[in-house]
Amino acid sequence: MSTRPLDEVQARTSFARFRVASIVEGIALLILVVIMILRYLVFPDGPGHETWSTVSERWSPIHGLIYMIYVVLGFDLWTKMRWKLPRMLLLMLFGVVPVLSFFGERWTHGQVERDLASRPTLQDEERGEREHPHA
Q1: pLDDT greater than 50 at residue 91
Q2: Sorted alphabetically, which InterPro entries does this protein's record hold (predicted)?
Q3: Any idea what the Cα angle at residue 113 is, between residues 108 and 117, rounded to 5°?
Q4: In sequence order, what are the beta bridge partners of 6?
Q5: Residue 6: which residues within 8 A CB-CB, separation 6 or more?
Q6: Is residue 13 scored above 70 in pLDDT?
Q7: Taking CA atoms, which of 10, 55, 96, 123 is between 20 and 30 Å from 45?
Q8: Model confidence, pTM
Q9: CB neighbours of residue 29 within 10 Å
Q10: What are the tens digits of pLDDT across the range 59-88?
Q11: Residue 131 has what pLDDT?
């Protein structure tokens, strides 16, 4: 971790975007899982298979785009927080395993709060100046 102060405003803004992306990605992945179950298990052949094949062909690229946005926003948060590489890999994993993005978002929120409380921020310096002007 770097000794340079973090920008708390940028970090919180980045996390807010990541939080939304985590929820959207989690929902999109669950939809994809349901589509795949219907396509391959419920209607493997016969009536309904063609419908779920078409739905799958349409939803899969949409989900792919949502995941790519999630990855970009995860990378943005990772760079703002100046975390090490394993944390970035963990953020990416959260978006791949169904339902994990919801738990990962909560865990990441705790990590952001912990790091902002324990590491120096630019806003700490500003708050110190307001508390002790002309010191």
Answers
A1: yes
A2: DUF3817_TM
A3: 145
A4: 121
A5: 80, 81, 82, 115, 116, 119, 120, 121, 122
A6: yes
A7: 96
A8: 0.87
A9: 21
A10: 999 999 999 999 999 999 999 999 999 999
A11: 56
Q: Which two tokens stand for residue 3?
A: 């000794």
48 pLDDT band, cuts 50/70/90, is confident
AA identity, residue 56: S
Q: What is the DSSP string of 40-96?
A: IIISSSSTTHHHHHHHHHHHHHHHHHHHHHHHHHHHHHHHHHT--HHHHHHHHHHTT
Helix axes 49-81, 8-37, angle to 10 degrees: 160
Q: What is the mean pLDDT of residues 86-99?
A: 96
- CB of 95 within 8 A of CB of 25? yes
For 121, the 3-state DSSP assignment is: strand
112: three-class secondary structure by DSSP: helix
* Alpha carbon distance 37, 44 (integer Å): 9
Scan for tokens 């010191």, then name that residue: 135
